[in-house]
Design goal:
Length: about 900
């Protein structure tokens, strides 16, 4: 997690220049596993990396990076013992650093009584840098009526900035990650830095959003970021943001923890919920899986608060300030280090101990939440390897980790019942118990079973020293509650806003257990008994889930027809006005009207069973019904059509029905490695090797831009020989799987869709078999044909090299390209950008059509057939390409018509 404090030390990062395997230890797990760590420099801009789709996309953290004026430096922790805590003023709060109770300090106390509000960041993002113009006519001699083009940006320079103007100091190429198991990535570097680090994942050939990697600098080991869990992806990419250069010796570290034959057994044996192990109020000796630590492992430094470090002879419960009202809580089931394959030879040194545990600090690890139960041991090995081998730490930073399935796992070695000093909260490790939930919990809290497990282990751990969850204590010189989130003692998002908001209820649950109340295991037993009783009652009534659903919907469904029947792995029942479909996973839901007309067994096999009844209230009086792997959308104008898989995900990314694609107008077809579906605004096509692309819907593109290129074949949506057969966006990466998707998020319902127009009908032939002559084309038709020809000409030269001052396909600059393309079709343009702008008529953005020009001082391009994109010769990095002109809009773009 990012610690924002003044520098007190700077340690050199461990630099790895080759891939190496860690030594195996047959004593650790039944089947030895050799995690593999590799590293590569991350100090320069990779041309291949910058050319990846979305490499310059903005993120939640880029605004902060553009105005960063702070130093992320080592904290106050040492592996061999904690130093006396030092109170320091917190640095500036970044917009992505979460909410804090006070803007000028990170040493706050979490509140159980009030919810947390996001606090605005200090400072704002700076505007984009102003560079020199690339065009040869920009030399300070422009006409006085034009803006001073010497201040215009070099078009190539925007390639080294994000879309919102943040400098990219370094970016990696796309890095392949293991396909058979999760992996861990992170960054190490030397010295201090004022940059930030971001990571993104690629799955199914498409990149996800950029995510901030929080800096986690401690006195233990070298400087670097927290480990980021990668799961369900086939590639990652990292970048460094900020005006400064990437710090010295910056390395991208990738850990492949491998999978083990013992992982499944470890998960199976470590059940999320087990019966209580001992009678309440009795404290037994340390379990057999906790080996005694020799006395030579004692800490050699004095902990904070005057507490003395202890060796292995420390006995839990020896604190002199024990709260006698706290009852001992039974120890929950915790998977041992041996069970998840921790190689003890990788540890650097031995454990250190405090005199007692006074507080618990709750964390999340960050990274992917989509891991499976069987992935957990592998992820634990990855974090362990990154901490010890990548960062040079002595051991895992957390005392215990929890997964999203409600299982607990031993982290730092030294004995679970002992007051082991971890490495999880700089300056507050001595006397604290660090527990971290695997995953990211900013927007959604962990499942209740995981929260229950965290509550139980904290209740048990604090009860060993008679500490109540209702108390306050002094930790690291600061007065805090005994159960806190990491952000209460450091400026960090950890444990995530959604998880942090649960702390008040967690304290109450922990206090209840410490007062002799039920543990989560006890509550589960009662819940199981209750469910058994309910099941018996249900069996007595002899009503199926479908019959129960029908009871409250008799009028809208009408009379049943026939008996319940099996269909597509579930059950169905026909009624006069629709159906009810049921599976154990989805429950029973009604399908009626236009949705019922559309649903059959084949569709259920494709998109699964309904998750809810149908819903209305969409744009244009639309309705929709979500299914397990897709959805059906309906409007009177478009009819009812199902979406699923990769094309639905693409539609979602474009805003569902509220975006430029509008509603689906046809059915999904999949054949020979190609998936295709028509929407109001475009025809989407996914193909092997090309990813998802947009083709123009016949006669109509979004924003009323018409594409009247001739087609050979005549049917709507079929490609022909004309230029409209080209994809309307650049091809994305090749997916590695069939175009399917496990789930279908419900669409956003906020904004209205962009306007679309109904294409004009194609002219039909007259009944006269021998017309005397062809009708003359109107001026408007001639103009449209010329526009189509210009677009076709521009497409021919995609990839032509950029050369400043050039005017031919062998090499040209932006104005040389536009002059050549228009000249091929009888339109003579002047040589330079300013003169080309003055050669036409300035029009509004709403009037702009394909073939018009878009201009800013120093650069010019040809508006393409795709909304928001242009053809241009931008720089030696992009050469001649089709790309977005949104960055020009930010600089006051002018639209010009010369046709």
């Amino acid at each position: 997690m990012r610690i924002l404090v003044p520098s007190v030390a700077a340690c050199a990062a461990a630099v790895m220049v080759t891939t190496f395997g860690l030594s195996s230890s047959t004593a650790a797990i039944a089947v030895p596993v050799n995690p593999e760590i590799s590293s590569s420099p991350l100090t320069d801009i990779s041309d291949d990396g910058l050319d990846e789709i979305g490499a310059r996309a903005s993120s939640e953290s880029t605004a902060a990076a553009s105005n960063r004026a702070l130093t992320n430096v080592p904290g106050l922790l040492r592996a061999s013992g904690a130093t006396t805590a030092t109170n320091v003023a917190a640095g500036p709060m970044t917009p992505h650093s979460g909410a804090f109770e006070a803007a000028n300090t990170g040493l706050t106390d979490s509140s159980a009584e009030s919810a947390e509000d996001d606090a605005p960041g200090l400072g704002g993002p700076s505007g984009p840098a102003t560079d020199a113009a690339e065009d040869p006519d920009v030399s300070g001699s422009a006409e006085s009526s034009e803006p001073d083009e010497t201040d215009a940006p070099v078009v190539g320079s925007v390639q080294e900035e994000t879309e919102d103007g943040t400098s990219i100091a370094a970016i990696s190429e796309a890095v392949d990650v293991p396909s058979g198991n999760p992996s861990v990535v992170g960054v190490t570097y030397e010295g201090d830095t004022d940059v930030s680090f971001e990571v993104r994942q690629k799955a199914g050939g498409e990149w996800g959003a950029w995510t901030d990697l929080e800096i986690e600098n401690l006195d233990e080991g070298g400087n670097g970021t927290e480990p980021f869990i990668v799961s369900g992806a086939d590639g990652v990419q990292l970048r460094v943001l900020g005006a400064a250069d990437a710090p010295a010796a910056t390395e991208l570290v990738l850990v492949d923890p491998k999978s083990s034959a013992g992982d499944a057994a470890a998960v199976e044996e470590n059940q999320p919920v087990l019966p209580p192990q001992a009678d309440a109020g009795e404290q037994s000796a340390a379990p057999s899986d906790e080996a005694e630590v020799p006395a030579t492992d004692a800490a050699n430094a004095a902990p904070a608060d005057g507490a003395s470090a202890q060796n292995a002879s420390y006995v839990p419960g020896s604190s002199s300030v024990q709260n006698t009202s706290v009852k001992k809580v039974d120890k929950p089931s915790i998977g041992s280090r041996k069970s998840w394959g921790a190689k003890e030879s990788m540890r650097n040194g031995s454990a250190d101990y405090a005199s007692s545990v006074k507080a618990a600090v709750v964390h999340h690890t960050a990274g992917a939440n989509g891991y499976s139960a069987g992935d957990v041991p592998s992820i634990l090995r990855g974090i362990y390897s990154f901490h010890t081998q990548g960062r040079g730490w002595s051991d895992v930073g957390y005392n215990v980790l929890a997964d999203k399935y409600g299982r607990l796992w031993e982290g730092r070695a030294g004995g679970l019942s002992k007051a082991v000093i971890g490495a999880h909260a700089a300056g507050y490790n001595t006397g604290s118990f660090g527990i971290s939930v695997m995953g990211t919990y900013d927007k959604a809290a962990p499942p209740q079973k995981t929260i229950d497990a965290v509550n139980h282990v904290i209740a048990w751990k604090l009860s060993l020293d008679g500490v109540s969850a209702a108390d306050r204590t002094t930790l690291g010189g600061t007065r805090v509650r005994t159960v806190i989130g990491h952000r209460d003692v450091g400026q960090t998002v950890c444990p995530g806003a959604a998880f942090y908001s649960k702390l008040g209820g967690m304290r109450s649950a922990i206090e209840k257990m410490q007062d002799g109340g039920d543990t989560p295991e006890d509550e589960k037993k009662k819940d199981d008994e209750k469910k058994k009783d309910e099941k018996k009652d249900d069996e007595k009534t002899s009503k199926t889930p479908i019959e129960k659903k029908y009871e409250g919907n008799v009028e809208q469904l009408g009379k049943p027809s026939g008996e319940e029947f099996k269909i597509a792995g579930g059950l169905g029942q026909k009624y006069a006005k629709g159906h009810i479909y049921y599976t154990k996973d989805t429950g029973a839901h009604i399908v009626k009207g236009v949705f019922d007309d559309r649903v059959d067994e084949d569709l259920l096999k494709t998109i699964g069973f309904p998750k809810t009844d149908s819903k209305g209230g969409l744009t244009d009086d639309g309705q929709y019904q979500p299914f397990q792997k897709g959805s059906i959308h309906y409007t009177e104008a478009t009819g009812a059509h199902a979406t699923t898989g990769i094309l639905q995900r693409y539609w979602k990314d474009k805003g569902y029905e509220n975006g430029h694609l509008g509603y689906p107008t046809g059915e999904l077809t999949v054949e020979d490695g190609r998936a295709e579906q028509a929407f109001q605004g475009a025809r989407l096509v996914w193909a092997e090797g090309y990813g998802t692309t947009e083709f123009s819907a016949e006669g109509d593109l979004n924003a009323d831009v018409e594409d009247l290129s001739p087609r050979d074949g005549g049917e709507s949506g079929e490609p022909g020989e004309g230029p409209s057969d080209e994809p309307s966006v650049e091809p994305s990466e090749q997916p590695t799987t069939e175009p399917t998707e496990d789930s279908s998020p419900e669409p956003s319902r906020s904004a209205s869709p962009e306007p679309t127009t109904t294409p004009s009908p194609k002219p039909t032939k007259t009944a006269d078999p021998k017309p005397s002559k062809k009708p003359e084309k109107s001026e408007e038709q001639k103009d449209e044909e010329k526009r189509a020809a210009i677009i076709a000409e521009a497409k021919k030269h995609m990839g032509a090299p950029y050369r400043w001052g050039g005017t031919s396909p062998s090499g040209w600059d932006c104005s040389g390209f536009t002059q050549y393309v228009y000249g091929k079709h009888g339109i003579d343009l002047p040589r330079h950008t300013s003169a080309q702008k003055n050669a036409g008529t300035v029009i509004s953005a709403e009037e702009a059509k394909p073939g018009d020009l878009v201009w800013i001082p120093g650069h010019i391009g040809i508006i393409s057939e795709t909304k928001g994109q242009m053809y241009d010769a931008g720089s030696s990095r992009t050469n001649t390409s089709k790309r977005s002109y949104s960055w020009m809009l930010d600089r006051g773009a002018v639209f010009v018509r010369v046709i």
